[in-house]
Each structure stands twice: as structure tokens, then as C-alpha cells.
Amino acid sequence: MNTYEEKNALLLEEFKAIASIPRGSYNTKAISDYCKDVAKQAGAEVYQDALNNLIITIPPSPGYETSSPVILQGHLDMVCEKTPDSEHDFLKDGITLIFDGDWLHADNTTLGADNGGAIAMGLALLKDPSALHPKVYLVFTTEEEVGMEGALGIDLSPAQDATMLINLDSGEEGVFITGCAGSVALKFSLPFVRTEAQGLHLQLEVSGLTGGHSGLEIHHQGANASILTATVLSLLKTPYHLISINGGTKDNVITTEALAELVIQPKDLSAFQEEVQSLEKSMQALYTTRDPDLKFDLKILEEGRFAVLPQEDAKRLAFFTTHAPNGVQKMNASIPGMVDTSLNLGITKTEADRVLWHYHPRFSQSVEKDALIQKMQNLADYLGIEDEVLGCSPGWAYREDSTLRNLMTEVYQNLFDITPQITTIHAGLECGILLQKLPHLDCISIGPDMEAIHSAKERLHLPSFYRTYHFLRKTLEALR
């Protein structure tokens, strides 16, 4: 056990406990109750609402009674992604942790360090009598990964005397986030009446893509499995009927695999297979850098009569999927490498009588958001596709006069002899929503080094995790 691990054994103990509790979005009652029980055992005051949000009040340490209270904030839910061969059940199974040197990852599933790391830091602070700090409110929200619903619904009045908020939902050590993009949820629907087609049933699966968080990874310009599948369908010369196309499970995750079900004439099988093989090679060459494991898998099933989409609706499906904007739309003119506007096709789903698309646009300026939504709606209207704007989360604007940022920068420099990077991000954080409730809050977001969040390759750098917690404690200690 290294020095950091010895000093932060309580932190790792809490992370393990959190990982053992299933806590996907909309399945947060158990993890909320666990945190509530830990707080009550520590003698802390707890507020739990109907959404399973928590506000846990940690009293100030002796000598900090007159210091300004601070909110430490993270979210209880996690993205539930796994590899195709994993049998993990996110509704009942805890995460299997695998320690690999300095890194921690899961067994072919998301790790949940996003945002279990924040919850572990908060509970470790709560349970550690040696920690020095002003009054601390642990604000743990729910359903962050599916539209920040917990933050939207929480009543922050129990913490209204707080003057600062440290969000613990970032994923790069030494980078202080001081602003973030807003986001909106868009849903499109193409209704149809199925017809029947006689022929050979095939399944075409596109898989092996890197994917990732649609805010943090969108600029890498990797492939989206649903769009790639629709592109292949558009390029096929062999006649076919479409049964369905399905891909993705979260609107804020870049789709890593998609499945199309088709019907062709048996006599066309050889030509169809050759086309698919040729297109696979072309797409592998096109995306070899970002998605080196891209592959197509064609399965031949039974002959028979099948319910299929009318040909015109199948064409509209493919046209909308391939022509609707996706990915980076505008880069920031002032900050190199910073995305201003993007959107992600996260879910494509074929039901019995309609096709559904779920998009997740992100924006820095409202006018860019409005223009992008209008562009999508114009295309949908032209094709006879219905649209719905489901909700909008506000962005978080950079604050010039941040006392908290200045103090944390000084603490970080003194601890590590490194100047932290001050930046804003294209991903969404709950700070914008919480600032609407308590506009006076001075906010910042920090976190340890993580990789491939929102994917089965997610991993957490343990020394960074320990250092981040140590830095957090030193920051709170300096708020006297």
C-alpha cells in the first residue's frame, strides 16, 4: 500500500461501498439511502427529497464557526454501459472493481467513477474527524446523466447560506473548470404502417467503436454506429427491405454499436455479402485512427414473411439519419480546441409503428442553440418527421471575480508546485442549474484523472484520486 493509499484508506473504502450498490439513472433510491444512513450514523443533519436528492450538513470544525459555508456537489447516478458479451445486470449487480497498477476499472462495464468519486470524497470527509473545514453541505443529486433532473428539482433552501460551490464532477486533475455548455434534449419520430415482404432475414451489426462522452469526446470526430449503419444502408446497391435499425442507449453517449434487420431475396445473398465486406473495409480505413476496432457482423437467419417498413419510409429513415447534423458544429474562435456547438445522435430505436431518434445538442450561446434546433426541425418537417424539444439545461458563464478560484489556485500551487489550468468545457455540469437557484454562489469544478467515461473502458487513476481528495481537504482547511 503506497503513502497516498494509506492516508486515504477511508476514501477507497467509501468508493468500494458505493460501487457495490446498483445506481443507474432512475435506480438511485438504494444509493441515496446508503448515503443518508452514513450521514445519520455520523450525527449529521440530512435532507432527502422525493427525487432521492440529498443535502447533508457537516458542522464546522472548531475555529471555523464564522467561516462562510461551502457546498460540495456531485451526482449519485451513473451511466450503465457494458461490452456486448457482458452478462452484468445493472439493476441488481454491483460493479466488479479491477485494480490494475495505478488504475482502477471495472469488469467490462462502466466504472461509475463518474460521479462515484465525488460521493466517496464527500462521505470520507464526513467520516474523518481530523478534517478541518467550515460548515459543509454535501449536495448529492440524482438523474444527472439523463437530463440533470435531480438538480432541476432540488430545493436548495437548506443550503442558502452557502457562498461557494465546489462541483466534483470533472475528469482531469489540475484543470479547474469555471464554465460549461448548456444542453437541450431533442426527440424525433417517424410514424409508419408496416407492410410485408417475403425473403431471407439478415442482421447487420456495426460494433467496436470507441464512443465516449458526447461533450468531452465529440471533437475527436469518431464514428457514430447508428449513422454509420444508415450510411451503409444508403450505399447498398442490392435491393432490401428494412425491418428495423436500433443503436445506442443514452443520448449523451456516442453510439458504439447498432443493429439493422433486413430482408433480401435469397438469390441476392452473395452480392449482398460482397457489398457489406467491401463497405466494411472502406469504413475501417476511414476511421482507423479513432475507431481501430470497427467491424461489421452479418448474420443469416431464416427465410419467411416479415413485417417491414414501406420503402419510402425506409428511405426517409436513412436520409434523416445520415443528413441531420451530428458532431461538432462550431469551434470557439478565441479558445483553441474548444467546441462551441455540437450535437450527438445518442439513440435510434425502431418500434412497431415508428422510428425514434434522440439527440443531445450542446451550446455556449443560446442563438447557436436556437439556430441548430431550427435547422433540425426544418429537415424533419421536410421529411414528415415529428419533433419535440424535451428540455433545456442552462450553461454556466465564466466569472471574472472569483475569490474561490483564486484561493484554490494558490492552494494547488503551494501543494504541488504547479499552476492549474483554468478553462471552460463543452460538457454539461449541474453548476448552471444550481446557480439559477442560488445565483450568489462562487463556483468551480474539479476532479481526478479519468478516461473513457460513459463507456465500458472507463477507468480512474488512483494516485490522482488520492491527490484530488488531499487538495480538496487543504482547500477547505484554507477557507478559515
Give an account of the 3D structure.
This protein is α+β, with helices and mostly antiparallel strands. Helix content is 31%, strand content 29%. It has two domains: 3-181 and 395-478, 3-Layer(aba) Sandwich (Aminopeptidase); 184-393, Alpha-Beta Plaits (2-Layer Sandwich). The protein has twelve helices and 25 strands.
Q: Which key phrases capture this entry?
A:
480 residues, alpha+beta, Aminopeptidase, Alpha-Beta Plaits, 2 domains, 6-stranded mixed beta sheet, 5-stranded antiparallel beta sheet, 12 helices, 25 strands, 29% strand
Short description:
This protein has 480 residues and is α+β, with helices and mostly antiparallel strands. It has twelve helices and 25 strands.
What percentage of the residues does DSSP assign to strands (E)?
25-35%
Which term fits the overall shape?
Answer: elongated
Radius of gyration: 24 Å
What is the count of structural domains?
A: 2
| Cross-sheet strand order for the largest sheet | 1-2-6-3-7-23
CATH architectural name of the largest domain: 3-Layer(aba) Sandwich
Stretches where pLDDT is under 50 for at least 5 consecutive residues are none
Q: What is the name of the CATH class of the largest domain?
A: Alpha Beta
Largest beta-sheet details: 6 strands, mixed
How confident is the prediction overall: mean pLDDT?
95
Distance between the termini: 33 Å
Helix/strand-derived category reads: alpha+beta
